[in-house]
Amino acid sequence: MKKSNYSTSVIISVFVHALFIVLLLWGADFTFDKKPSVGNTIQATMIDPAILNQQAQQIRQQRQAAKDAEQARQARLKQQTEALEAQRKADAERIRQLKEDKLTAEKATREAEKQRQLQQQQAEEAKAKAEVKAKADAKAKAEVKAKADAKAKADAKAKADAKAKADAKAKADAKAKADAKAKADAKAKADAKTKADAKAKADAKAKADAKVKADAKAKADAKAKADAKAKADAKAKAKAKAQAKQDAALNDMFSGLEAENEQRGGARGKHIADEVARYGTIYKQMIQQNLLVDQSFKGQECKLTLRLSANGLVLDVSQLAGNNTLCRAAKSAVLQVSEFPMPDNPDVVKQLRVINLTVSP
Q: Which pairs with CB-CB distance under 8 Å and at least 24 residues apart come from 314-322?
C-alpha cells in the first residue's frame, strides 16, 4: 500500500513535467512559410511568469507530498518493526515462563512420587505389623476358645443332668395337673349348666319386663304427643288473638288521622286522607312484623309519639304513657324498622311527620 502511494506521486510528477514541456512547445512558432523579408525580423512568444511560478509551485508541492508520504511510510515501517520486536520479546518471555512452569510441575511431580513411595512403604510396614499382631491375637483367641469349649461341655453335661431331673418332675406335675383339671372341668360343666338354666329363666323374665316397659312407653309417648298438640293449638290461638288485638290497636292509631283528613272535605282533602290511610296501613304492617308479643302484655297498652324526617327516617320515638315493658318492646319494633317509606306529595308527608299511636296487644 505504501509503495503504491509513492508510485502514484512519481507518476503525477512526471505527468506534470510532460504537460509543462508540451505547453512550452505549443507556444513556440515552428512555421517555415517563406515570407518576404523586410530587414531583420525577430518573432518571439511571451510566456506568463505567473503561470510558470504556479506550475513550479505545484511541482514543488507534489515533490514535497511525495517526500512526506515516503517519510510517513518509513515511520510506519519503523513502528511495525518495533511492534514485531516487542511481540517477539513477549513470545520469548512467555516461552521461558512456560518452560519454567513445566520444570516446576515436573519437580512437584517427582516430590509427590517420592512422598507416595514413602507412604506406600510405611503402609506396607504397618500392614506387616498388623498381620503379626493379628496372628498373635488369633492364637490367643484360639486358646481362649478351647478353654471356653471345655467349660461349655462341662456346663452342657450339668444342664443335661438337671434337665433330665426337671423333665421327670415336670411329668409328675403334669399328671397331677391333668387330674386336677379333669375334676375342675367336670365341676365347671355342672356350674355352667346351672348358670345356663338360671340365665334362661332371667332372659324370659327380662323379655316380659321389656314388653311391659315398651307398652308403658308407647302409652306415655302417645299422651305426650297429645299434650304437645294441645299446647301448640292453645299457643296458636293465643297468638292469633294477640295479633288480632295488635291489628285493632294499630287501626285505632290511624283512625284519628283518617277522621281529621275527612273533615277537610273536598277532592284534595279526600286524596290526602286516602294517601295517609294507605301509608298508615303500610306502617302498621311494618311495625307488626317487628313487634314481639308476650303473654304479660295482655290487657296492657302503650302510647308513643314518632317523629319522622321528610324521607321517612325515624328521628325520635318517645313514650307518652302506658306499661313500661310494653313501651320498650314497641320502641324496639319502631327502631328496627328504622326508615318508613314516604310519598311524593308534600301535604301527605306533612301529615306523616308526627304520629301518635297506641300499642295494645
A: 314/338, 314/339, 314/340, 320/356, 322/358, 322/359
Asked whether 320 and 331 are in contact (CB, 8 A), the reply is no
Cell numbers 484360639: residue: 142
3-state secondary structure 114-160: HHHHHHHHHHHHHHHHHHHHHHHHHHHHHHHHHHHHHHHHHHHHHHH
DSSP H helices in the chain? 2-27, 49-264, 266-290, 324-337, 346-352
pLDDT tops 80 at residue 73: yes
Q: Which domains does the chain have, with CATH numbers?
A: 245-359 (3.30.1150.10)
Q: How far apart are the first and last CA of the chain?
A: 125
pLDDT in tens, 263-287: 555 678 899 889 988 987 788 788 7
Closest Cα partner for 329 from 293, 357, 305?
293
Question: How far, rounded to the nearest angstrom, does the alpha carbon of residue 258 sit from its chain's CA centroid?
Answer: 66
Of 351, 316, 353, 352, give the one whose Cα is nearest residue 335: 316
Q: In what order do the strands lie in the sheet with 302-308?
A: 314-322, 302-308, 354-359
DSSP annotation of 293: P
∠ CA 102-104-109, rounded to 5°: 95
Buried b (16+ CB within 10 A) or exposed e, 280-316: beebbebbeeebebeeebeebbbbbebebeeebebee
Question: What is the pLDDT of the chain when averaged over all its residues?
Answer: 78
Please answer whether residues 264 and 273 qualify as being in contact, where contact means their C-beta atoms are separated by less than 8 angstroms. yes
Q: Is the pLDDT confidence value at 348 over 80?
A: yes
